[in-house]
């Protein structure tokens, strides 16, 4: 089971790892709205998160067995899946900003 973000954040801070990085709060600050849609007659739930810059990310969930479907749980999973995509996008953006400030043979080509 994955460790939760709060415990990871506490560990990062306790170790004094303070170079530029993303935080859960930064990711949450990018989200300005969210919409959900459940496809009728299915267990498929989609979450669209609108971001501060106007971009949207999509997360989805589906139960293999209709008997196990719970719309609230489906929404939570779809939201988490969409939010996880923001980490990758923001990570790329941060790395690009850091690379722009690097000079020398260690900078990405």
Structure commentary:
Strand 1 and strand 2 (45-51) form a beta hairpin. The chain has helices spanning 5-14, 24-30, 71-100; strands at residues 31-38, 45-51, 56-61. It is elongated and about 55 Å long. The chain has a domain at 31-90. Helices cover 43% and strands 19% of the residues. The longest helix has 30 residues, at 71-100. The chain has a 3-stranded antiparallel beta sheet with strand order 1-2-3. The chain has 109 residues and is α+β, with helices and mostly antiparallel strands.
Residue windows where pLDDT falls under 50 for at least 5 positions? none
How far is the N terminus from the C terminus? 37 Å
Quaternary status: single chain
- Strand segment tally: 3
- The proportion of residues in beta strands is 15-25%
**Globular, elongated, flat, extended or rod-shaped: what is the shape?**
elongated
Strand order of the largest sheet: 1-2-3
User: Which series of helices and strands comes N to C?
Assistant: HHEEEH
Number of helices: 3
What is the helix fraction of residues, given as a range? 40-55%
Query: Which radius of gyration do the C-alpha atoms yield?
Result: 18 Å
The class by helix and strand makeup works out as: alpha+beta
pLDDT averaged residue by residue: 92
For the biggest sheet, the summary is: 3 strands, antiparallel
């Amino acid at each position: 089971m994955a460790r939760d973000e709060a415990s990871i954040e506490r560990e990062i801070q306790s170790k004094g790892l303070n170079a530029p990085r993303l935080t859960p709060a930064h990711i949450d600050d990018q989200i300005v709205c969210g919409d959900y849609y459940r496809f009728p007659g299915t267990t498929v739930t989609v979450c669209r998160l609108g971001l501060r810059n106007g971009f949207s990310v999509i997360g989805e969930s589906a139960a293999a067995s209709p008997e196990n479907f719970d719309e609230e749980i489906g929404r939570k999973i779809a939201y988490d899946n969409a939010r996880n995509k923001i980490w990758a996008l923001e990570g790329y953006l941060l790395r690009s900003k850091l690379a722009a400030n690097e000079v020398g043979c260690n900078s990405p080509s």
